[in-house]
Amino acid sequence: NEVNVAELMQVDEVVNQDKSVPYRFAYKHQVNLGLQNSGRWVTMSNGDRIWMLAIESSNAHSLAVTFSELSLPKGSLLYLYKPDRSEVIGPISSENNKDSGVFTTNPVGGDRLILEYYEPYNARNDGELKIRSVAHAYRVVETESCDSELETSCNVNVICDDYLQWISQRSAVVRLTVDDGTRWCNGVMLNNAAQDGRPLLLVALADVVGDPESFVANFNFQSNTCSPSTRGKLKNSISGTTQLAVAPGAGLALLELSRKPLDSWNVFHAGWDKSGGTPFEVTSIHYPKGDVKKICSEQGMPNMEVFHNQLVWEVQDWDIGTIQAGSVGAPLFDEFGRVIGSFLGGFGDCSTSNFSYFGKLSLAWDEFDKFLNPHNLNISKLNGLFPDFYVIDEDILKQNVAVFPNPANEHITIINENSEGLEFLTL
């Protein structure tokens, strides 16, 4: 069916006024396409088979698909590509299978998409592919033009030399695509006191639109230069999240990714401070309207304010940068690089006075405590880490080890709740 772009944009303009919802960029076509009812099979001489399906949606800038069932047997491979093969997603294999079966792809440019599924003879009829929706993008990321437009010209790329002290935190910030590949928002990877690299993602509650299993997290989507901006590449992605907890009073939610990011992506798990104390200065890192990663900073203390009936941090007129539509869920860092909240909405841009409101992590602690502090340690703040090569927090490790009775005459019991094993024991 035809996509009425003018009508969609008119609705978007209204709902984006206070920046409090994920930024819609695509229209969701509901479909029912699969191996049994669409496409065509080609059988090769050795008995292996290939299934191909072409999807077209006129005038789309890009297309993405959401599978309601993706179950690939070992040895099978799935590719998605433009007809000229200038853009290819894949191979997608059995390693991408999830219990839910739901899987959303990154977009492929253009209005025509080819799916190609290879099934070896020894796995014939074992695969399952069912597509429930096709995301027709009616907007594109306008990276280059945003540098010169009045309302966005003050945005600063995180890669600029002036912000090298944020090199760790910037890799923790995620561009999140939600609602079957149709809306952009933000999230941040958080460390937990077990320091085990569990892939926890803090978002605004408003980010949770549609099925969390269909959410796609994009890492390291940023410009390669400070100025002018260059387009980012969608090369580090994870499809699928699980909702762990929601905190309506703070406007926040905690998700878990379907798998851990690869070591080579160098993804930082940011620290946090749940004390609720007012920081002396704050910084936010975000993806405005799905664009490459930006940074804004305020060299003053945030105010306490009320936004949508919630107590929030308020930042007025950032000293550097601004926050825009599509930035909902972006983290607010204190001067120590610890997360204290997530962007809920606001008003204004580079050309006007602006107000940004962040839900307070401290008000979500009752709901998030068991995930961020699983062993109930007596801490109010935690530093971040790169899970596979980090400096161990000795104080937390000591709190995770119990030795009793102490003192002991005949025997002792040792309980170690750290992910690291005991290296030695002195009696």
Percentage of β-strand residues? 35-45%
The span between the termini is: 75 Å
Major sheet: size, sense and barrel closure? 10 strands, mixed
Overall residue-averaged pLDDT value: 90
- Structural class assignment: mainly beta
Number of strands: 30
Task: Please tell me about this protein's structure.
With 427 residues, the protein is mostly beta strands. The chain contains 5 helices and 30 strands. Strands 12, 20, 21, 22, 23, 24, 25, 26, 27 and 28 form a 10-stranded mixed beta sheet that branches. Strands 1, 13, 14, 15, 16, 17, 18 and 19 form an 8-stranded antiparallel beta sheet that branches. A hairpin with a 6-residue loop joins β6 and β7 (88-92). The radius of gyration is 23 Å and the shape is globular. The protein starts with a helix and ends in an 11-residue tail after the last strand.
Which properties best describe this structure?
single chain; 427 residues; mainly beta; ten-stranded mixed β-sheet; 8% helix
Protein topology:
Layout: H1 5-15, E1 23-24, E2 26-34, E3 40-43, E4 49-56, E5 62-71, E6 77-81, E7 88-92, E8 103-104, E9 108-109, E10 112-119, E11 128-137, H2 143-146, E12 156-157, H3 167-170, E13 173-178, E14 183-190, E15 200-204, E16 216-219, E17 236-239, E18 241-247, E19 252-257, E20 271-273, E21 282-286, E22 294-298, E23 303-307, E24 310-316, E25 331-333, E26 338-347, E27 355-360, H4 365-372, E28 381-382, H5 394-399, E29 401-404, E30 413-416
Parallel strand pairs: 20-26
Antiparallel strand pairs: 1-14, 2-11, 3-4, 4-10, 5-8, 5-9, 5-11, 6-7, 6-10, 12-22, 13-14, 13-16, 14-15, 15-19, 16-17, 18-19, 20-28, 21-22, 21-25, 23-24, 24-27, 25-26, 26-27, 29-30
